[in-house]
Specification:
single chain; about 450 residues; Mac-2 Binding Protein; seven-stranded mixed sheet; 24 strands; about 30% strand; globular; SRCR-like_dom_sf
Length: about 450
Amino acid sequence: MIFQNLLALTSALVVTLIQLGSMDVMGSSEGIKVLPVDMSPSIVYVEKDGKKGIIYPEDWDDNDAQVICQQQGYKSGHARRDLGSVRLQPNVTFGAVQVWDRGSYRLVCAEGFDDLAAQAVCRYFGFAYGINICCSAFGRMEYNIAYSNIKCTGIESDILECDYVKYFPNCTSGHYASVACSNNPENEEFELKIHQSGKVSIRRFDNTGFFCANGFDDAEATVICREMGYKGGSAYFHSRHTKYSTVPLLGVPWLANIACVGTEKNLGKCGKFDWGSVGNCDENKIPAVYCYNRTGFSFALVHGTDKDNGLVVFTVDDKEGAICLRDSVTEERQKLAAIVCKQLGYGNGGLLLNGTDAENEVIAREVFPGESDLFITKIECNGNESSLAECTFRILERNFPFTEDWIPFTMDGCHNPLCYRVRGNNRWLDINRELSCWDGKRRLAVKCFI
């Protein structure tokens, strides 16, 4: 009865939504509230007087879907007449294959799932082509694997038209299936891009994606930078987790463990180039590169009382940089000092300046004068690393444009202007902390031990 009553209202609801068009995210009309939807194909639920139902009128079309999606902060949207029995996460063109069943989404086993199965999935969403991305490529999923032994012939327009085993999956690997969809056929062409933050993206099959951190090192960075017109490059890693956002939507994990030597003229010449076969991507790191034209990174201690202590500096090309500690606590700084000393060939090390932050800044400016062209910042280490290359960090150049890619934040969960202002102010404070590095504050100075 609940659904019948609400369904009777849906046609009027759609007309009213189109007329208003500017309702807030949880906008309502005549006591009817539209519940949030996500970026994958979703059923649109409504709520009235605490009772929940669905919008599913006969004349539901793209105009109606576009209004709903724009209300919820998306640029646009398309209508589907089915109940969304299959969806992709995290995006409508790529992601883990999820099937709606018994009140929840279920995953499909990756074993035996091939390009024919991927094509069936993608046809369901209106794409001409699809390819398999293996395996559990989009990280941890909250749903269980319930479909296995998928066998498709290549003519199906829905994965559920293929043969499969349901509820008793033979899935010894425990990996789920994923796909990427496109309206253009697969080929070996791809496009590389190095972002201002150093992150590397790669576009193929009409889908932008990324390299997994697995097996990514200076050899891969050198080849990528050389392909982009530089002499060479150094690899480092960003953290995938930020203070103001969830895991960034990076795209398709296209490559992992590509086994470059470093002498290759382009990425396609590297030893292992298996598109979409990435296994489990490292969920904590995003590969980045810093390209140079003369000399790569080298670290040293300067302005100390002896060779085993001083300000930690690095040079690359003709630029000199320092390590910015930002607002890290003393224990984290001690941990970082020990790692840097190990990287320089010592057995251990600690902080050279052990006063308060204010005292340290005064002393540092007197003992370690001058400015830097670069900073290593946003460092996250476990403490057992033997060099900074094993940690995650960012490299910040003077006059760096602070893009969303650098310090992103999300409006998820915000439903009022105050929340938006707080999130925005927090991001601005974070930027100001970064800018304070240029004033000579928070630079790392260490004393190393044999």
